[in-house]
UniProtKB/TrEMBL annotation:
One GO process term, biological-process aspect: lipid metabolic process
Protein name: Lysophospholipase L2
Enzyme class: hydrolase
EC number: 3.1.1.5
Organism: Salmonella enterica
Length: 281
């Protein structure tokens, strides 16, 4: 454990060497697979297993993210003695898309994400040999995983949520947002188009990104998108925004039903999800 902590503290200064050496070697050991989710959408996932591990962690990424982004986290957790599973949610990563424009962040029903996770859990996690089962979920993945645990009584020993998407930062009064989204919902061409202010994926300079302070990791993620353009996902559709807001409201409404031990971590400089909803949760 002490050596692992030393690695964390010194890695930033030698990140390129770590990424090209130990991390690349570790990533080659992955097992990739898929299952068929709601509406016959293929859902991809990756796993790292060792017969001596008696604990497992399921990682649920955020919007637009793929499991390829989580190689470093998988590396660290695996070397702490956990089997690791990471799911690519429908509409992003290496999973199937719902629209002809693969850049549009879209889902028919937010609950489709939840039921995909339920099917994955039943297939891969429930029958496993582990003594402990955990979930680590980020942003949109936090809303998905929380709704999953509220709606499905499964054996999950604890969940850790980082910046869970229980609300979305929108610089308009909520009644106005609701009115606009309800109007867009009645026009299919608009409901499936990019929400205002968004569009196709494009590489932003590091200084303009709102997600990380790590220049090395940001540049590494851009290389993923350059090497594998099909990973790119742009802005959300109007319908996705509506579904995302409703999902956050459902999470808060079901909070009293949560029985799973939960750790919730906020980002102090958050600009995407609404931290006030974490306090309400």
């Amino acid at each position: 454990m002490f050596q692992q902590q030393n690695d964390w503290e010194t890695r930033e200064n030698a990140f390129a060497a770590f990424a090209m050496g130990p991390l690349t070697d570790f990533w080659r050991q992955r097992e990739e697979a898929e299952f068929i989710g709601v509406g016959n959408i293929p859902v991809r996932f990756v796993r790292f297993r060792n017969d001596s591990n008696d604990r497992t962690i399921v990682i649920c990424p955020g919007r637009i993210e793929s499991y390829v982004k989580y190689a470093e986290l998988a590396y660290d957790l695996f070397h702490l003695g956990f089997d690791i599973f990471i799911i690519d949610h429908r509409g992003q990563g290496r999973s199937g898309r719902m629209l002809s424009d693969p850049h549009r962040g879209h889902v028919d029903h937010f609950n489709d994400y939840v039921e995909d996770l339920a099917a994955f859990w039943q297939q891969e996690i429930e029958p496993g040999p582990w003594r402990k089962r955990y979930i680590l979920a980020h942003s949109m993945g936090g809303a998905i995983a929380t709704l999953f645990l509220q709606r499905h009584r499964v054996r999950c020993d604890a969940i850790a949520l980082t910046a869970p998407m229980f609300g979305i930062v929108i610089r308009l009064p909520s009644f106005m947002v609701r009115h606009i989204l309800d109007w867009a919902e009645g026009h299919q061409r608009i409901r499936e188009d990019y929400a205002i202010g968004t569009g196709q994926w494009r590489a932003l300079p590091f200084g303009m990104n709102a997600l990380t302070h790590s220049r090395q990791r940001y540049q590494r993620n851009l290389r993923f998108y350059a090497d594998e353009p099909q990973l790119r996902v742009g802005g959300p559709t109007w319908h996705w925004v509506r579904e995302g807001i409703l999902a956050g409201e459902q999470v808060l409404a079901g909070a009293s039903d949560d029985t799973t031990p939960t750790l919730l971590i906020q980002a102090e400089e958050e600009r995407v999800v609404d931290n006030r909803t974490h306090d309400r949760f």
